[in-house]
Design a protein that fits this description.
Four Helix Bundle (Hemerythrin (Met), subunit A); transmembrane helix; single chain; Isoprenylcysteine carboxyl methyltransferase; globular; membrane; Phopholipid_MeTrfase
Length: 165
């Protein structure tokens, strides 16, 4: 896939997937963001920082797919190369971690148990998708390279020291 096509495809998928999961659905669940902001001390600034930091990680991860992998995160247009640079040296699933963090940041911002429950449901769905579809697919596609990567980089809880593989 050419770089321009990878960027265009990743941008479209960014809007379609995390844009809906971390943007549209929380917007609907929070009555179009009309809920009052949390009165719990610290929740609003922590939620805001979590949202901004996770959005930066998400953008970085999408850029890696397009520029390093020459593909998209969408299963219909996968990368030509295994993406293991940047944030992927700290955690195997930074997009899912970022999306869940954005949702939890919004839950803090609004003190919303509905958004917490949505994040838990999202975590179960994402975890199942990774376990039963993504990992076997990546193992078939990239073979030993993926298995080495999988053994050395945690899936969900980022490590501070990057893997040097």
């Amino acid at each position: 896939m050419r770089t321009f096509s990878a960027i265009a495809g990743s941008t479209a998928f960014f809007i379609a997937a995390p844009g809906v999961v971390a943007g549209l659905v929380p917007w609907l669940l929070s009555d179009h963001y009309r809920l009052p902001w949390s009165t719990v001390p610290g929740f609003v600034p922590v939620g805001g920082v979590l949202i901004v930091a996770a959005a930066a990680v998400l953008l970085h991860a999408f850029a890696r797919f397009a520029l390093e992998g020459l593909g998209t995160p969408a299963p219909v247009a996968p990368t030509e190369r295994l993406v293991i640079g940047g944030i992927y040296r700290h955690v195997r699933n930074p997009m899912y971690v970022a999306v869940l963090s954005i949702i939890l940041g919004q839950a803090l911002l609004f003190s919303s148990w509905t958004l917490v429950a949505y994040a838990v449901i999202g975590a179960v769905v994402m975890g199942s998708f990774v376990r039963f579809y993504e990992e076997p697919t990546l193992a078939r596609r990239y073979g030993a390279d993926y298995e080495t990567y999988r053994r050395n980089v945690p899936g969900w809880l980022p490590r501070l020291k990057p893997w040097r593989g």
